[in-house]
Amino acid sequence: MLRYQHLFFDLDHTLWDFDRNSADTLRELFHEFRIADLCTASCEVFIERYRIANELIWEQYRQDLITKEVLRDIRFQKVLTELGVAEKDHPPAMGSEYLRRCPTKTSLLPYTHEVLQYLLGQGYVLHILTNGFEDTQRIKLEGAQLRAYFTHVVTSESCGFKKPHECYFRYALTTTQAHPAHCLMIGDSLEADILGAQRMNLDTVYVNFAQSPHDAAPTYEVACLSELMQIL
After folding, report:
1. What is the Cα 194 distance to its own chain's centre?
2. pLDDT tens sequence across 167-211
3. Could you tell me which CATH number the domain at 6-17+108-231 has?
4. What is the H or E stretch that residue 108 is in?
5. DSSP code of 42?
6. The whole model's pTM is what?
7. Where do runs of H (alpha helix) occur along 102-165?
8. 89-113 pLDDT, tens digit each
9. Is 18-104 a CATH 3.30.1330.80 domain?
């Protein structure tokens, strides 16, 4: 008998390669909107500044300090202003173009399809637990041919709470009709995925691609998704 029945996967940074897909989109926009004509920053500096700003703003969103609409509007304003672009020169369509294009990118972390196929073959029931927005996550899953692997996709919008809130995990357990003892949470965020799941007595797999040091105590830790096939 399988030790676990339900496997809960985070999506961004765990399966869907957010960093690569975002960078590819930003590179396109940097050239199409001729950002080099508006400031002295290189394309790679622009991408790195966006990455830093996006992480900070998403953390504010996770803490309910800003809304979805503010998050989507403020990112490019902040980055372009920091790079010295006058507000009157901010391309008004840049944010909406990013939102339209980025979810359609299909780069995945190594071994994503192989691991998901293996886990289904072993008899596990797979689900997505994500703080991402309903519309963008649907596009990502369908475009990258991931949707068919998962029985349920639980988003923060669908339940009204965000990981790591306990109510999010309660909602996920109710939706999937799963018992905590039979579930395993797999994700790349120590706070949202690992600590959040542990508060609800779920076992966890910390996907630590960078092998960064930490003080958490996940049930398992992997540096590559392929290692899941040794655990499960």
Report:
1. 14
2. 999 999 999 999 999 999 999 999 999 999 999 999 999 999 999
3. 3.40.50.1000
4. none
5. -
6. 0.94
7. 112-122, 134-143, 156-159
8. 999 999 999 999 999 999 999 999 9
9. no
